[in-house]
Amino acid sequence: MNIDLTGKNALVGGSSKGLGLAIAQRLASSGANVTLVARNKSALMKAVSELDESKGQIHQFLIVNFSKYETFSKQIEAYFEKNNIDILVNNTQGPPPGKALEKKIIDYQTAFDLLFKCAIHMTRLAIPHMKNQSWGRVINVSSITVKEPLNNLVLSNSLRAALVTWAKTLSIDVAKFNITINNVLTGFFDTERLEQLNSSKAVQQGKTLSKINNEIKDKIPMKRFGKVQEYSNLVCFLASEKSGYITGTNIPIDGGVLKSL
After folding, report:
1. pLDDT recorded at residue 205
2. Which of 29, 99, 140, 182 could form a disulfide with 52 if both were Cys (CB 3.0 to 4.6 A apart)?
C-alpha cells in the first residue's frame, strides 16, 4: 500500500530508539516532516540525520525528559508556539516494572505524569491546529496489558489503561473535525525495552535471558517477537488518509498473544 504523507508535519515521542525511531523513519519515508522527541541528544542527532529527505522534508528534534513533567510542559508549550502538528504519536519511555503492593503512592504519581499527563498535554496543544484545518491524527503507543495486565507491570497497566479510556472519550468529541484518535496495543517487540524487562525478570527468577525470551515466544502463536518495521507500518497507516474512518479504537499488534476479543 502506497502511503503519501507529503506536506504533513509529525511529532513522534520517544523516537531516539526502538519503536519510536522506527515510526519516525516510516513517517519520513512516506514524505512527512518529522520532529523527533526524546532525552538523549546524541541519539536524536544521529537519528534525525538519517531520516529520509528525498521529498524535500525538513526534520528536527526536541530534547525533553518526559520524566520531569514541569520542565517538559514548558518545553513542549514553547515548541507548539512555533510549530503546528498534523500527526501526533504519543510515546514515552516505560515506567519501572514491579507488582502492585511493591509500589508506593509516589511511584504511581510519577507514572501518572509520565504516561498520562505528558500525552494529554501534547494532545491538547496539537488539537487546535487540527480542528482549524479539519484534519488530524493522534496515535497513542500503548500496550496489550491494558486488556490483559501483567502482574509485574502494575504502573504501566494502570496508567496506560487510563490513557486509552481518555483517548476514547476524546475521539467522540473531535470526530466531527476529521480528527482520529487511536491506540496501538503493543505486544512483545524486539526492542531494548523488552530486553531490559526480560533481563530484570531473568534475575528475579534465576534464569538466563535466553530462557525467559523462549518462554515468552512459546506463548505467542507466531512463536517470535515482533519487528519494529511491522509496528511502524501500522502506525503509518493510522496516520494517513486511508484510515480516515477508524477512530476510538484499541488495535492490538501482538502476533496473536491476546486471548481476549
Report:
1. 93
2. 29
Q: Which CATH architecture is the domain 9-188+227-253 placed in?
A: 3-Layer(aba) Sandwich (3.40)
Which sequence spans correspond to the domains of the chain?
Answer: 9-188+227-253, 190-225
DSSP state of 114: I
DSSP code at position 178: T
Report the side by side order of strands in the sheet with 136-143.
Answer: 60-63, 33-38, 9-13, 87-90, 136-143, 179-186, 250-253
Burial letters for 181-214: b for 16+ Cβ neighbours within 10 Å, e otherwise?
bbbbbbbbbebeebeebbebbbeeeeeeeeebbe
Give how far the C-alpha of residue 63 lies from the chain's centroid of Cα atoms, to the nearest Å.
17
What confidence tens digit (pLDDT) does each residue in 36-57 have? 999 999 999 999 999 999 999 9
Q: How far from 224 is each of 66, 181, 189, 258, CA to CA, in Å?
A: 30, 29, 9, 14
Q: Is the model's pTM score more than 0.85? A: yes
To 5 degrees, how large is the angle CA 68–CA 69–CA 72? 85
Confidence (pLDDT) at 183: 98
